[in-house]
Amino acid sequence: MTVTEFRPIIKVIEEAYEIPYFQTTRKISALLPYNYYDTDKHYPVLYLQDGQNLFNPMAPFGDWAIDMSLEKLAQEGFSDIIIIAIDHGEHERINEYLPYYHPRYGEGKGNFYIQFMIEKLIPYINKNYRTLTDFQNTGIGGSSMGGLISLHAGLSNPGVFGKMMIFSPSLWISKTIFNYTKSFQPLEESKIYLYSGGMESKEHLGNAQKLEAILKEKMVENHAIDFKFSLNEIGVHAEVYWKHEFPKAVKWLYFN
User: Is this model's pTM higher than 0.85 or not?
Assistant: First the structure.
């Protein structure tokens, strides 16, 4: 089998998928295993934020190239995963990914965004694709503000998202996230992969390390958490570093 035959199938679910909570629409895409239509398998799912930056080499700030990573993972035998990419709201991105009040941005719409995912998008995906619908096989992830909303979604919905892929989360925007982490009570074992670059801002790295300390303390207290913190000493806050981290995180979260 040639390399290209391992490439994931990229399917645009809808160019303008309705989000009634915001009276707007978003492009939603699915990356299916290369052999999806040749099998009757059911697959775990990872919902990723900032869809514009995930597999578009023409994206303004670069992309994660997750299609290329999934191709390489498939060559290694790790193809059993569906990725759902949700485009962000452009100029509304910060507000829609912010789950708390902020003096500059006001009352964030993040909780409505999570409600949209849980009540509308996830049931749609489970109905139309062969997914494993249980907690252990449903993940969420993103970077920067997308990382913040993914972390909040996982912490506040412990029966929905069993896996969290959190890259360079914007923890600076509200320290409320640390209180959520301290009070987090997973119903079953939650897997959390946290990444930070060593060359991101001092406040950013410090907040990531603070989050690491809280989660490790919860593990010591025997909470059902499997946690990994990955630090790239030369990493800055940019897609190119999230691109290299993505396959490592997928392997650890889904195939470890």
Answer: yes
